[in-house]
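Exercise 7. Given the components listed, write out the predicted structure of the assembled complex. Treat all entries as one system.
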Amino acid sequence: MSPKKEVLVLKDLLGSNKKIAGEIRAHLEEKGILTLNLLSSPGAGKTTLLEKLIEHLHPTYRIGVIEGDIETTRDAERIRAKGVSAWQITTGGACHLEAKMVGNLFSQIPADLDFLFIENVGNLVCPASYDLGEHLRLVLLSSPEGDDKPKKYPKAFTTADALVITKIDLIPHLPFDPQRAAQEARELNPELKIFTVSSVTGEGIQELSSFLIEKLKELRTIHA
Amino acid sequence: MSPKKEVLVLKDLLGSNKKIAGEIRAHLEEKGILTLNLLSSPGAGKTTLLEKLIEHLHPTYRIGVIEGDIETTRDAERIRAKGVSAWQITTGGACHLEAKMVGNLFSQIPADLDFLFIENVGNLVCPASYDLGEHLRLVLLSSPEGDDKPKKYPKAFTTADALVITKIDLIPHLPFDPQRAAQEARELNPELKIFTVSSVTGEGIQELSSFLIEKLKELRTIHA
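Answer.
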């Protein structure tokens, strides 16, 4: 296939995805459900962060989680063990979630949720190109990955609303400078909100939870 | 685009890639250059492992490195600082290297190399589908990523010849069981060779270097 044809096919796919994502977002806004798309490399701590956020927010807030994985239902099982609903999407090889996969689950998702978290496939590249109808995109960067990653994988950082630097309890054992990581990310995206968290010590989870509650209030004020 | 058409396009692309990869492999065998394709998540330690292998192997062995990244030439600069030749491929967004990208560099690569290392884009998913003409595929799993990753991202492990568990110096601070990671990987791929290394302490680098030297000898015996 010629490079020109490849680009046209990709534009088609993304155009169709964007349309479905817009419909999903409108539906969620009507219900007042704040929806978050979590992106990161494999093993950056997305599921563990969700477990900690659920401990803070549930049962005061009603939570649902969509788990995207290549294979296994391990992550959905971990989330259900926390007492909230989780729906597993196993892509069977595909490297990212698409809006239609989220749309296909809609009949199963209760209309009275406060938060819908979508944990994307662990991949810092491909998921950044696919709008899932979310209101906020969170990119996680775990400290063991290194502080040079934002400019090496820019799209996840330029398209995110917030950066969550995870596993900060490990920083004493690593050549990781959180200031450098934050500065690189802000050079790519000056509007980026930045949080630093440890799911082991609990540091930073309260601040991130408060930010999400504030964003839920904003959504409901705008779409009241 | 219909799902059926998507599959046909992908098969076309992979078929063409496979053909080019075969030509590259034949060319490298004729020159006696053992070629390795390194796959992993972002930040699993591919470049640092290469720096350590170069310290062991260079200048006794002649080494070249192809660096694949979405953006920046940082990794090639790190490799050149070790005194060996490095060629940077910046994909400008693409999530994996393809054989034709490697083929395009051939006029620049000296014919008297012993080892050609290809560091793929940091992505545990997409690069697994693309043969680059390598003789050995190494998948890296860093201990902070978690011991549950092989079955969640199976293709990288089923297509690899060796698994290198990296950052083992961090294990005392992590919920990571190297035996579980190794067992999962071997259930997917019983032939997999497994190494455990720390680029901080140097543990395991000698064993991995010896394995590569052995494989170089085998290549030259077979294609003498």
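Discussion: Confidence is low (pLDDT under 50) at residues 1-6 of chain B. Chain B has one domain: 3-140+204-222.
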